[in-house]
User: Fold these one by one.
Assistant:
Number 1:
Amino acid sequence: MGAGAGKTRRMPRAVRERQMLDAAVRTFARLGYRAASMDGIAELAGVSKPLVYLYLHSKEDLFTAVIRREARALVDAVRAGVEPSLPADAQLWAGLRAFFTHTAEHPDGWAVLHHQARTHGEPFAAEVAAMREEIVAFVTALIGAAAREAHGTPDLPARDVAGLAQALVGAAESLAGWANETEGVSAKEAAATLMNFAWAGLGNLMRGERWAAGR
Amino acid sequence: MGAGAGKTRRMPRAVRERQMLDAAVRTFARLGYRAASMDGIAELAGVSKPLVYLYLHSKEDLFTAVIRREARALVDAVRAGVEPSLPADAQLWAGLRAFFTHTAEHPDGWAVLHHQARTHGEPFAAEVAAMREEIVAFVTALIGAAAREAHGTPDLPARDVAGLAQALVGAAESLAGWANETEGVSAKEAAATLMNFAWAGLGNLMRGERWAAGR
């Protein structure tokens, strides 16, 4: 310890683990869960394969650890981006920018959460479902608050709010994948597209204006 | 043939195959791909297991056949619901009603497409991705036509239209799962929630009105 140099230098376990998880998220995102190998992940992390097994136990446990870390980072980024004292539309705009900025800066993490974690069955899909429920609850609270904020109209029924939150989260997931796969679409553009789509629509709903069928 | 009765009556291959696929979609949706067995599917279909293998070859081929049939049925239902001579908002409303009616009437088919087919890797995920691209292309054309229809404003840039189509399709996917899992949400309610969300927002965009940041 201390004066050692080069490959034999000892690092704290937390640093080693982070290196392994960084290598794993990149590998799982690009090769997929099945094709990813513990050998390849160890090599990319610059550690020995036995050390990966010692710390993370198995490919399944490593994949679960990656999903948990990336899900937590995404939810934290969205929460940190939102200032609860602002009006609801400003909160939504900040939340969308934080979401699309995070998914653009962590494309491998988003690919693991949105694609890989859902395409390899349980228990991985359940980890992502839990994260999604947390985001839906957050958006539901935001839309509910916006409805209460709006002057002169009754509250939106709870079921409408729940449906709108599901629509908004589904739209954001879909756009994040599209933005990452489409050359030259910035996080801010993706956020602005969804904000225009969502708020101009939500804004009318808040004022009690609905689209009229059969006009 | 003809006068035969009971179990030994011969049926056309197409009828037998439909029975097998009906049993398979139900089994895959409820048990998942891995837990589903060819024995169980044959029993539910009222045919022998060798006949299932003779017609559909393997569990993998059967799953692929189920995905293709359910994807085709969903796309056809949406296309059939839309009358191209109507104004764009009426077309969208008809398309959404057709989509949510079909997913509500075929919850097992939707569960296979949205959940099972994406949670068991390739080649199944690619089948669903192809269906999704067809629906996105359809919605993109619809939004583009609406933008051209709108008077007095320039066309929306193609990239905005593409982003809006991605947002709308993602919102519909998310709401369909929610509607099927939530007691008492009808297809028409789900379609109305999304129509209000989408069109009041899209309608403003068509008139060149955008949500203004920093109000």
Number 2:
Amino acid sequence: MYLEKIDSPADVRAIPASELGALADEIRGALIDKLSVHGGHVGPNLGMVETTIALHRVFDSPSDKLVFDVSHQTYVHKMLTGRAFAFTDPARYDEVSGYSEPGESVHDHFVIGHTSTSVSLACGLAKGRDLVGDTYNVVAVIGDGSLSGGEAFEGLDWAAELGTNLIIIVNDNEMSIAENHGGLYASLAELRATNGESPNNYFRALGLDYRYIEDGNDEQTVEAALSKVRGIDHPVVVHIHTEKGHGYAPAVQNKERFHWDGWFDKATGESLLPTDGEPDYSELTYQVLSARMEADPRIVAISSATPIIMGFTPARRAAAGKQFVDVGIAEEHAVALASGIAAAGGTPVYGFYGTFIQRGFDQLMQDLCVNGNPAVLLSFADSARNMNDVTHLGIFDIPEFNAIPGLTYLAPTCKQEYLAMLEWAIDYREGPVAIRVPGAGVVSREGVALGKAGAAATEGAGPAWPLTPEIVSRGADVAILGLGCAFPIAQEAAAALEAEGVGVTLVNPRVASGLDETFVEELAGSHKAIVTVEDGQLEGGFGEKVARQAGPYGIRVRCLGIPRGYYDRYDPAELMASCSLTPEGVAAAAKELLA
Amino acid sequence: MYLEKIDSPADVRAIPASELGALADEIRGALIDKLSVHGGHVGPNLGMVETTIALHRVFDSPSDKLVFDVSHQTYVHKMLTGRAFAFTDPARYDEVSGYSEPGESVHDHFVIGHTSTSVSLACGLAKGRDLVGDTYNVVAVIGDGSLSGGEAFEGLDWAAELGTNLIIIVNDNEMSIAENHGGLYASLAELRATNGESPNNYFRALGLDYRYIEDGNDEQTVEAALSKVRGIDHPVVVHIHTEKGHGYAPAVQNKERFHWDGWFDKATGESLLPTDGEPDYSELTYQVLSARMEADPRIVAISSATPIIMGFTPARRAAAGKQFVDVGIAEEHAVALASGIAAAGGTPVYGFYGTFIQRGFDQLMQDLCVNGNPAVLLSFADSARNMNDVTHLGIFDIPEFNAIPGLTYLAPTCKQEYLAMLEWAIDYREGPVAIRVPGAGVVSREGVALGKAGAAATEGAGPAWPLTPEIVSRGADVAILGLGCAFPIAQEAAAALEAEGVGVTLVNPRVASGLDETFVEELAGSHKAIVTVEDGQLEGGFGEKVARQAGPYGIRVRCLGIPRGYYDRYDPAELMASCSLTPEGVAAAAKELLA
């Protein structure tokens, strides 16, 4: 038993080389024990065991600075820097985050969750070190698909200009979340095949010194190679070939599924996640897309390294052929590609996690929306009730998209509305449309008005469904606007208020990007108060637009949402309650305005 | 005289090869005639004359699609596609934009102003072509420094996967706006030195076929090379060596100044721009920075290819040595670099045009602000009264920055306040601070309260100067909040209202990222109405926050700003007036609320 005795990297250095294999085995056992019941990034960490041990034996952290990217491969680093308890003691599994976190340890230097950042951040540390007059080593670890991100390129390209110590470890496990994409990965394969000798060398072409290590899962080999670059006086790339999932057969055999897994049988690797048969939004999306793609060869689904979010399993990707494109981790390119496809007469449908599309903000603004090209964007996992790591929050999508002229942002309240909006968006040719795929779970609203089928039931100003709000019920006291997946909260609040005799107009805005001026004027003229309800950030959100539009009428308005801030590993129910984002909270806010 | 007879590329193809030199001379003459009195991108277009002629002789636009990047090198393309009048007839100089513009011609396919986009957009056209079943050539032109942008890399990396026709012209003029930066450019130099034979080849390392043309200013050479790739069945890079400013000695000798120039003596190249001795904000910024940098070696100024915006001329950059960094066109890297420098104890000051920092939105959110590192960000040219090309608008900065938790965004109203805020921000260690450098020209406010010097004169809630608003005058009827460079408008309106007997509280908010709740509550409780005034986009802007905060009090609020939209080559005074962003407009809005 080694882990319980490791309080700091000094303890790792004190272990005789002959016992490091046993340490690696123990680390793998702890990883599999924890992740099989707790969930987390399995394959990326199993592959990095030996390299991480070597890093801590060669470098003197925290004097020397190790910057991990993507930081979901820091579990082993955490075990070796005083945080093994969070992997060996089930009662303490939640005491560390899944990413690098300076709040936990002096061995972590940045909160990092999005990919492709380590080289640039490490360049900054190295430049700062030089300005301040320090002399420590700065080590960036990058890999697991992140090289395809533009920021990683920008960092590597600039690194050559630094001219002082910087060690860039490229963890080449031949994978992204799914398989790798892009010409670069073909040339990494060539480097692997030639033991690093191929003249076709991306890193050298960027002006960087370069070393290759074939057996990245042999600790002594890696340690020897790293020892040679310690204290180096210029930037160098150390390209290390590792195996994603190394040492655990199920993860080696099924690299994509084990990139992140939630609950599995240790012995067989079989998933133990419940499959209750109710399709989630990924599956629902795939069903619509596959039918439409089959009928129309001009429709193409685009992913940036997260194909499963749209239900595209490996088999389905293969079946879709040229109508499915995974660009790898490259959101900027994905947005521009979609714009170009639309300009050429194709129909691109680009699905992504809302947190990652921040990378494409300028491309949405310029490459796509200035041009008005009809691309369909599907933003997943947006809601304060979805991912709760500080680097993966689902509360910034509305401020981001709503800053962009020309982008219609739809917020369906339920499954039926989502599916109809998706069909509608695929057919819409007037400009780009984004849909906020409900991020708080699948909700059903039988009988909701859905365009062609239910247009007559739809009231409100503006053009045809879905570009006009749905007035669900009418009352004279307060108008409550429940946006997207926050609608059920507004609906319950309305019912409670009605039961108390308060007249409520319940509105499903449908369009997150803003309401027609005359619609708000009408609401302001026929009520005593307005309450807006959204499960995203208040600042820049939907409610603020309503407050501005209602402002001149002097009606009382209360915007409910999440106050601007970085929230980490919070309890979603608690956070929602603290922001009055509960039926009781909404009802209380309404009554306060009416008092 | 050829130009007046060229209505379309067919006319270019009809010119005998022996006369193309005369055509090129005529094009250069027209460029210099126009740009010397009108302003525009001089060097980039002079260098592209022969390549553009060759493109239109080899390819059949608009069937074949030419996508230019950065599209400020499209002047010659415009001359050859029916728009020569805008370069030969002074009365029609303003009839074309400075960038590619589908609204002008079927030969332009995208509105493009930001760099590094053409490869991705062209990938999209090519993919769309394949889906639709067309067979035309798609040609991307990239160069003039744009290869350092992450989006260009993402596009090149993916291009290899396309597998069908795509021709990428790399216009290598050895320059960005200023000199090139990054290791990539060293390897381009190696390719130039070896006539394209060096094994160190960035494009091949990304899996792309590659050709080199040494004499990119010889039309026949370029034409012959392009003829060989026309109809090619896979992606290919054609690396063309051109000379920025070719054919005009002053532009060749002073490549940086002639990247864009406003008014110059054709014979000597001497600038005729008035120098009235009043320093602008670039010069003012440099004066503060150079003094602080001299006193503290930990301070470093960072630019992403626009060093002049902070006053860093070539001589000053040389003098600053390691305390000045130009990362090239690489905003993502610049933000992460700044975060790393701050984490290592340095003080980074990163200055940029507000329109370009959109590229760094995710890096601001994640690499910098989640980490709370004390970097200073200076955002220039933000205002509806600054750049008025649709791709370079200065109205999106407040929505962008205000979406980001943890970022303090200051909006000085005048020179005195800006300089004091810059000094303050350099010393501030609590987190990242951005400053909206006034984008509507230098304004002086004698006696404005400036922290240490004037703290006693400052009222309002919250912490010390400048994090608290300035109450300039007190009145009982309406509170007018004039943000940053819109303050003078609010001030004049207040004076006019006071003269009419309306009691005005005039507020300089100082902080664009939002006011203290209690401050807004106090305003709402002591006035009949509130008017906010900003010269940026309303949606996501400063005013909306005030409207939301004031909402529960039922006070009338009117937010004045620019409605969300893409505005192109507008008259700033007209646009401002149409949005009530004049003293009269603000006063009228206030009176309407009070009526």
Number 3:
Amino acid sequence: MPVKPDILKVTATAKSRLFQVEEIDLRFSNGVERTYERLASRGLGAVMIAAIDEQQNVLLIQEYAAGIEDYLLTLPKGLIDPGEDALQAANRELKEEAGFGAERLEIIKEMTSAPNYMGHKITVVLAQGLYPCRLPGDEPEEMEVTHWPLDQLDELFSRDDFSEGRAIAALYMVRDQLRKAQV
Amino acid sequence: MPVKPDILKVTATAKSRLFQVEEIDLRFSNGVERTYERLASRGLGAVMIAAIDEQQNVLLIQEYAAGIEDYLLTLPKGLIDPGEDALQAANRELKEEAGFGAERLEIIKEMTSAPNYMGHKITVVLAQGLYPCRLPGDEPEEMEVTHWPLDQLDELFSRDDFSEGRAIAALYMVRDQLRKAQV
């Protein structure tokens, strides 16, 4: 690994309810100085849940995404609340968004989303041993849940309404891991 | 697909050099109203390039990511400039960041990053028929390029310094597509 640049200064430049923009002044090891903007990461991180039922289907939710002003198929996900670890948050979000709890939860990978300008991280959790259980969440409307066969990911990823890079990565990783476990 | 919520109002709430934060007031089809914050998407989108050499290695770059204050291994990527299409931008970024041009370029998938609160999209491009060609870019330091075997993705994804969800998704999709083409 190369020598990290020196962080000369971090300055808050804009702030809203959810977002905090910062400028970070850097001096790289070759002497070059740069100022970048980034979103400060707040909170305890987030989880994304790949919940697999007994028939090897993954549970997908249909959710309105305000960033792109459209409904998307994706995996249940949400922020880790104070006092929770990633697995507890995953089980809670699964109950709130998909109406299932999980007997077995396992961390697959901690991912970054856009690391050049965001500190946000999301932990992918594999959930198995599902049982019906619904917790009330803060969603504005109930989410339709689809059970999608894990051996038909190609068809899923060819759909325009399944586009979230982190969800595509999570499903491939989970499929590979479960296939290896079967061998 | 459900009926999309009505967009009652969009209000700019904070602005910096790179980022524009907006509030979006929504009324869902069940009558529930919500206000969400999001980052407005500006510009023409971005590209991420999976460049595969004759030996079936993918070209990785090592880049400092200001959002997480560390170096990461990832795929070359960058913004589409005015006047460029996605394939032209991909070939230019590949030349700037990795020192290679490509004879054959192909769009694999348009991905979203965090669609609940960002409109940003990134187009994954498969690049083949590589030849040495370096264009000067705006990077603060030269990026080290690694040729990583496409049949050793598991080992790559188990590394803590390879964490970008979009890059993991891109490499799995490209590997699957190239395997199918060989059959």
Number 4:
Amino acid sequence: MARVSEDAALPTHIDVAGLGEVLLGRWPEARKAARERALDPRLHSNHNLTFEDQRELTFEQVKILRDAGTALVGVPEYLGGSNSPGANVSAFEELVLADPSLQIKSGVQWGLFGSAVLNLGSKEHHLEWLPDILNLNTPGVFAMTEIGHGSDVASIGTTATYLPESDEFEIHTPFKAAWKDYLGNAAVHGKAAVVFAQLIVKGVNHGVHCLYVPIRNDNGEFLPGVGGEDDGRKGGLNGVDNGRLHFTNVRVPRFNLLNKYGAVDENGEYSSPIVSPGRRFFTMIGTLVQGRVSLDGAAVLANQMALSIAVRYAEQRRQFNTDSDIREQTLLDYQQHQRRLIPRIAETYAMIFAHQQLLDKFHEVFSGEDDSDGNRQDLETLAAAFKSMSTWSALDTLQEAREACGGAGFMAKNRIPQLRADLDIYATFEGDNTVLLQLVAKRLLTDYSDEFKNADVGVMARYVADRATEAGFNRSGLRKLTQAFTDTGDARKSVNALRDPEAQRALLMDRVETIIEDVADEMRAVARKSKSEKAEVFNNNQHRLIEAARSHAQLLQWEAFTEGLEKIQDPGTKRVLTWLRDLFGLHLLEENLGWYLAYGRLSMRRGRALESYVNRLIARLRPYALQLVDSFGLSPELLRAEIAGTVEEERQQEADTYFRRLRASGDAPAKEAKPARDPKAETRGHHA
Amino acid sequence: MARVSEDAALPTHIDVAGLGEVLLGRWPEARKAARERALDPRLHSNHNLTFEDQRELTFEQVKILRDAGTALVGVPEYLGGSNSPGANVSAFEELVLADPSLQIKSGVQWGLFGSAVLNLGSKEHHLEWLPDILNLNTPGVFAMTEIGHGSDVASIGTTATYLPESDEFEIHTPFKAAWKDYLGNAAVHGKAAVVFAQLIVKGVNHGVHCLYVPIRNDNGEFLPGVGGEDDGRKGGLNGVDNGRLHFTNVRVPRFNLLNKYGAVDENGEYSSPIVSPGRRFFTMIGTLVQGRVSLDGAAVLANQMALSIAVRYAEQRRQFNTDSDIREQTLLDYQQHQRRLIPRIAETYAMIFAHQQLLDKFHEVFSGEDDSDGNRQDLETLAAAFKSMSTWSALDTLQEAREACGGAGFMAKNRIPQLRADLDIYATFEGDNTVLLQLVAKRLLTDYSDEFKNADVGVMARYVADRATEAGFNRSGLRKLTQAFTDTGDARKSVNALRDPEAQRALLMDRVETIIEDVADEMRAVARKSKSEKAEVFNNNQHRLIEAARSHAQLLQWEAFTEGLEKIQDPGTKRVLTWLRDLFGLHLLEENLGWYLAYGRLSMRRGRALESYVNRLIARLRPYALQLVDSFGLSPELLRAEIAGTVEEERQQEADTYFRRLRASGDAPAKEAKPARDPKAETRGHHA
């Protein structure tokens, strides 16, 4: 049924090894070493424990990572490190193969707690605290989020007030909503915390800053003034001891203010290299982008795990006789099963290439290759866009894989449900995905009005002309994109034009631009109105702004995929991956078909032809599905899912052999004779 | 921001109590008693246990239900029951409020194991086995699914061969793929099983039949010839002890064949009241529809739980200052948050009314009020349609609710993650949802060709005329539905026409009919071709057939909602619920907008206006959101989620009081002065 009708001389296979190397990205050795390490059974968690016991097990696993020296890769030479942020994050992402709790527990220690000291502190701070952070003498807490404020960090309630008389800061939690919450390492293991608080010096609030605060003694007891609560069991990640912290007039020396972006001198004078409080805040928060980058990578890897398991099973598993009385059909030969898995393979490839671009940019900024303001802002926007898309995609793909494997998919021994439970929180921690997409949308609006603001007459005229065309088109139904492809009388030919990558790009981009332009117009109309009127117009456009941000992220993924094709040498592989890129693009058009038709970007004829075209493209890719997931390089030993091996195939061979021998023996029972007349028989054979 | 612009004299509130009664359906007392019982802390599971301990706890809980006599409601008077299938299932569904594992563990015992004896056995079988099943002396297993065959039950490998010499049946598992799998009660507690096997009598296979087979002695040891394996930990429902069973030449008396639809007499002669083996099989399987009916009800209840928690939290939780410097905005005032929750409230109402119709029909059939063949078949189709839609909806809604509550949504103390983990398997057990939708589609195809087959000349002529119009329309872009509403120059007026319920119904129905007609045409074209050619055409249409089945199910939900409106007395409540029904209908149009535009059912103008119309409808419903979920009647004590109470509101009031006093005291720290000149400041305020 995997019909390939249109092209002669199809590639017989794809270059799994060569493609696999491309998919490993810029730091393949770091990834390979991490995968080797992930095979170590000591790093494989046991989830059939109380959450209290799981936490202890995970903490022991973090010590194994410490002994392997993994944390040193990301820190400067003067701390014994090799200062390769890209290699460090690459290896960190791969920890999801061992166990997500281990990934997050070590990420809290080195990626959040340690990175805050590294990126917000001075070299003196590094030398004072980082050695004990790296070697786990000081397990630590990243105390930013409060019960009352998660997404809106700028509004947290904890205060750090400078006391000139003792040259100290006093950390204080004024009410319950200002308790720090959801903090890894807070419930049990943390001995110190980096605490984000409103910095008050001489009666002036300088906004959120970060201070290093010891919280427990060596017996694990809270220090005076520090208190907390255990968050208890969670939906997943129960190897991480999340909890709450509060502070009652806790004093720390002035030295403990991480002072890279805001310092208090011995005279009690505040100073900052960034004059604007708003820009200072965003710069400080921006240094913590590593979490989003690495969650993106981990989520993309989870997709690869899910699809590796589900496709291998779907290639072996058979159910129902459809075109043969003897041999049942494999799941992956069913069109609907292809529809469920193959577009998700395409999306995963797009996200792999997108993540490579994100990680490269992260390395540029944090290694100092290019840490310009513009590059930092691009990094933040990309991280927000890709992290939200990939963490949602991981939940969707893991669920689809679970269901595609039926009851087997629900068994812990097949790994998928625990992965999904653990990754659930990835959609809202390190930035709630909805809020992140809104950030992306605001960036698009800002860029759009910047372009408008600085426009010379030429650009301005072009803009007006474009808008006029747009308005005219909306009234008349004329297409704006006629230059990209022309419609013909033949539905198949007309949809074939969509294989042109420039047509795909133009359509994907047009949707983003049109929505953003339209919202910008509405915002401009109320630019001089009251704050609440502006807020209302913005809110009335929130849904489509978020849709525009999503489409923008997908366009960036599409472009990354398209650029990634250039890295592939083998012509057959490149051809198959080009189909896969086309599928990614056309599936996006299909998902937003209502918009493309309502705004005249696609004709009704093309709209009607799209579904069957996508179906044919999927059928053409079906023979390569297994090789496409094999290229992810995830062995059954890494996946640790029984059905990712050959167990299903072996069971079927045993059954086939049994029935073959039975038929040959002549002892096979006969089928019951069909009744001579039974008028109602089979007339309602509505069961498959 | 909850702007209500179009209607004067809006209802000030809805009649929560009166609406709540309507939502309870035909057996309100059964539901109320079950809710009262669900408050009993002995029925609340502890999930912080090994799965082995969870199983024992859940088994103890089932004994509490036994002591309450809950299982008797569904059985005949001669067993001490009250023979009310509808009341029985109503109460059973509500168990999800206590714990899904408890629901499924008791459902295995009484709903599957017991029901098989009841519905497939004779009165002698009832009297022999049901008393011990009802009182838990015989915990039992429903042994249908095998490792190798889940959806395709007809192809199972286990055999039951009649032995004339001893007048016994021999149950045998010929190979590993024929091991029974995923069976509740099999791993630990089951003492007997109803085993589905190919019945072989005198060398003839009469197809799948069901036999009662003891499997363990009173010490919990397997009887001779019986073996098994523990399925171990699962993604959820760990209070249920799923496992595998296999049989090696296990003999049971001839009496143990449940013989309602197929019997073997003392001369070893097979007979059945249903001559056709195919029809016999589907009739037997059809008696087990209770599982699907009750999962539908449980899933709809899970939706109500998720939305009760998320909406109550969204009404209290505030984040970001948008239109005020002092007061932050509640989550539910954000358009995107409304978009996430309010259409799901509409869908849940539609599913509640749809489930009431399903349960009424179930009661008709199983109480004997109307157990005609036609009604049975309608029941099966409705159950397949609604169970698949609602179990998927529950996973989607629980996930959206989890994310809408942020980190709090991930905490076990807020209930959502465990519910979602437990309900995950509802999407594939008791019928894989994708397979169920395919059954619905096949029923639609059958009904369509029946109509065609029996058509008199008039119908035939009408059909040909319809098809001609359709084809003409497809070429010219003419609308088929012009009679339902006419387009005007005014976009808002033109979309307003969609508030007409007849327009909604016509559009929803048209989509189903058009797809089914189209596929039927393609199938007819190959009707005389080979089996494999027919299979290929069917497979090439599988995706859109499943989409048609989904749309059909949604149309039935829409109709149930519309009929449900008639039960509402209070005019204001009826008005609000009519908007909610409109939202359900228009949101379906929005989700399939590409189809409606590509096939000319909606104009481009209407297509463009739809999104903002839906947004306005959602905003109009927003003030009633809390009352709409309050009408579900789920108290905080039933929900057992911390954030479903008032904790968030109390924390905010404490913080507000703190800040108000601070401002009044004059001790509030000043904001840092804005810099006189900092050209880069705030130009990239792309963080919310």
